[in-house]
Design goal:
single chain, alpha/beta, Rossmann fold, 2 domains, globular, 6-stranded parallel β-sheet
């Protein structure tokens, strides 16, 4: 293996609690100059906030080390020459879209409707506003910042943005452009950021969003028994290349196998 992609929540931490040994693992990869990126579907924090969060866990990182759905979405908007966008994302990541014309009106000339995980902010009022914006602007692109079904925080499993996107697709007849996991384009963007390196490994806790999706992009995949992992994952027809108890076991595995 020449490089590795780290999922964040469920691999390096669970909510606001670090995974034991995660900081030592990232330190080992830094000391050995092994190229790596942090891939995350979170749309509740900006890259600046993610750097600060990892630092609080003793993990060193920089903005350039992260590939997030907002960054991938901005790349897509630029490449498709889209300027007028309606954002339904947490306040903290709106800064990532500062280069575009932002509108809050459902009746404006909207070219794209961008949706991230709003967590407990989801309400019928917000969902209906998204629906009306899409209906009133039939040519607008529906952009999903990921299609993760659910994730685990300190209180247990909770819905992510994927089910909400499916609702809007069904209601409007639209097909979302996905700029996060499990979209193949998201992993391809990561490969490009790593200089098109070969033999890249993905490590994650989501059997579908991390393991199946990365394997479909041609990567090898490590499943960890932390985060949202369930023993029932191993009964599916998705076969991880490697299974580790946690990310803390990664350096030893890497030295023996990579």
């Amino acid at each position: 293996m020449s490089a590795i992609l780290f999922d964040l929540d469920g691999v390096l931490y669970e909510g606001d609690k670090p995974i034991k040994g995660a900081a030592d693992t990232i330190s080992w990869f830094n000391k050995n100059n092994i190229p790596h990126l942090f891939l995350t579907n979170t749309t509740s924090k900006s890259r600046t906030e993610l750097v600060a969060k990892l630092a609080a866990f003793g993990i060193e990182s920089e903005l350039k080390n992260f590939l997030t759905p907002p960054i991938a979405a901005c790349q897509w908007l630029h490449s498709n020459q889209i300027k007028n966008v309606s954002l339904f994302v947490p306040e903290t990541i709106k800064e990532e879209f500062s280069a575009f014309n932002l509108t809050d009106s459902e009746n404006d000339n909207v070219d794209a409707v961008i949706i991230g995980d709003l967590g407990e902010q989801w309400s019928f009022e917000i969902m209906n506003k998204i629906f009306r914006t899409l209906i009133n602007n039939p040519k607008a692109k529906l952009i999903a910042l990921g299609m993760t079904r659910y994730w685990r925080n300190t209180t247990g499993l909770q819905l992510d943005v994927g089910p909400m996107i499916k609702a809007f697709e069904y209601a409007t007849g639209s097909n979302a452009v996905v700029t996060g996991k499990p979209a193949t384009e998201f992993f391809q963007a990561a490969i490009k950021l790593l200089g098109n390196a070969e033999n890249i490994m993905m490590i994650g806790d989501d059997i579908r969003g991390d393991i199946e999706a990365s394997q479909q992009t041609g990567l090898k995949a490590i499943l960890v028994r932390t985060g949202k992992f369930s023993e029932s994952d191993l009964e599916l027809d998705i076969k991880p290349d490697v299974i580790l108890n946690s990310v803390s076991d990664l350096p030893e595995w890497w030295q023996l196998n990579a």
